[in-house]
Amino acid sequence: MQNFADRTAVITGAAGGIGQALARQAAARGMSLVLSDLDEDRLRQAASGLGLPSQRLLLHPADVSQEAEVAALARASFERFGAVHLLCNNAGVGFSRLLTEHQAADWGWVLGVNLLSVVHGIRHFVPRMQAQEEPGHVVNTASAAGLISSPGMAAYNVSKHGVVTLSETLYAELAEQGSDLGVSVLCPAWVPTGIADSAGHRPARFGREAGASPRSAAYAARMADAVRSGRLLPDDIARVTFEAIEHKTFYIVPHRKILQAVQQRCQDMVEGRNPTLLPAPGAAHRGS
Ligand SMILES: NC(=O)c1ccc[n+]([C@@H]2O[C@H](COP(=O)([O-])OP(=O)(O)OC[C@H]3O[C@@H](n4cnc5c(N)ncnc54)[C@H](O)[C@@H]3O)[C@@H](O)[C@H]2O)c1
What is the 20 CA–ligand 1 centroid distance (Å)? Predict the structure, then answer.
């Protein structure tokens, strides 16, 4: 998709971080926006800096881990703007501790928000985007954690590997159907956003996080430090993402150094070696 003006973007997780930066890019390109996140007040705050007239903006709070709420988001988006041209399945949460200390509820929360939300987004938006026979593009936010397996973040890794393979599958199925709809999967490494404070967005139905062992606490502290020291900013990630949409680039890997670890993983497989150990979160992969 090359012309954005007067087209409509739906962005989840739009109240902060990368989602808010995607909204800034979309607004600057003349798009109408449907912004979604858990909390209406934070959405209103995020939208206030965009300078969009009310006829180009819809704020729709939704918990994207719940299929009914994503279905309602899709209904509201198509009712208000008639068509959706860009879908950014971006909402996500971070979670860091030893795999043996992940509780079932932790898995439910992280997989629900990071992976099932993308499943719901595809199911409720993509058939209608295909039917409108206008240019369109889907961006699913995965992570470098969807390409490699760093210790201390098992549920997050699994959720993001899931988003990568889901996106590859969608790409292949659309290609087989001769569809023009573009697909990209966004795989950044560390970016300074609110993701290390995700526990504050944990819906009550998943209960509170259990206490962590010192080793788990150390993983979480290193992840928070890595996020804080990420050198590419949310606006950098959003700019690269829009360039990728323009060029129909599938894999968006803004931190290019991470590809060395991806290549190492593939070589380990091809050459029959056991996995090369990666540094724990925070020890590498911050820069570009
Ligand atoms: N920051 C990083 O280092 C980094 C790296 C790779 C990938 N990502 C991914 O980027 C995406 C955006 O994260 P971010 O870094 O901007 O973090 P962020 O915490 O700043 O933004 C995430 C947004 O998602 C929202 N959210 C959380 N749970 C939700 C739910 N159930 N329903 C709807 N919205 C919900 C939060 O309220 C928040 O506004 C996520 O998918 C994340 O996994 C982030």
Answer: 10
